[in-house]
Amino acid sequence: MTEVRAHVEVTGRVQGVGFREFVRTIAQRLGIAGWVRNREDGAVELAAFGHASQIETLLAAVRRGPAGANVQAVRTLPVDEHDALPKPFVIRR
Q1: Is 70 a catalytic residue?
Q2: How far is Cα 76 from Cα 30, in angstroms, rounded to an integer?
Q3: 18, 59, 61, 62: most buried, per Cβ within 10 A?
Q4: pTM above 0.90, yes or no
Q5: Tens of pLDDT along 31-88?
Q6: Distance between CA 65 and CA 2 in Å, rounded?
Q7: Which of 5, 13, 20, 63 is the catalytic position?
Q8: CA 67 to CA 51: how far, in whole Å?
Q9: How far apart are CA 32 and CA 11, in angstroms?
Q10: Does residue 38 carry a catalytic annotation?
Q11: Can you give the chain as a three-state secondary structure string?
Q12: How many CA atoms lie within 13 A of 62 on its CB side?
C-alpha cells in the first residue's frame, strides 16, 4: 500500500464547533499520524500521513465536517516531507 502525506486548510464555520476533535477522533480511529490546529484567520489546518485509502477517508470526513460546521472549502497546501508527524494524531494549540 502506498503511504501519502496531506496538508490542507479548511475554511468556513470550522472553529467553535468541535472540528479539531472530530478530525482527531477519525484520524486516530484510522491509525493516521499528524496534527490539526485552529489558525488565527478562522481556518483549520491539518497535516496527516498514512495509507492513501486512510487519507482519502479522512479528507472525505473533513469535507463534510461535524454537526454544526459549515465547510466552504478544503484547499491543499504544500507538504513538508521533513515534518515528523506525531502518532497518534494530535490537536495542536
Answers
A1: no
A2: 20
A3: 62
A4: yes
A5: 999 999 999 999 999 999 999 999 999 999 999 999 999 999 999 999 988 888 999 9
A6: 26
A7: 20
A8: 27
A9: 22
A10: yes
A11: CCEEEEEEEEEEECCCCCHHHHHHHHHHHHCCEEEEEECCCCCEEEEEEEEHHHHHHHHHHHHHCCCCCEEEEEEECCCCCCCCCCCCCEECC
A12: 27
Catalytic pick from 37, 38, 64, 92? Answer: 38
- For 11-37, write each residue's pLDDT tens digit: 999 999 999 999 999 999 999 999 999
Domains of the chain by start residue, with CATH? 3-91 (3.30.70.100)
**What is the Cα gyration radius of the chain?**
12
pLDDT of residue 82: 87
Residue whose C-alpha cell reads 487519507 in the numeric block: 55
Cell numbers representing residue 86 in the block: 506525531
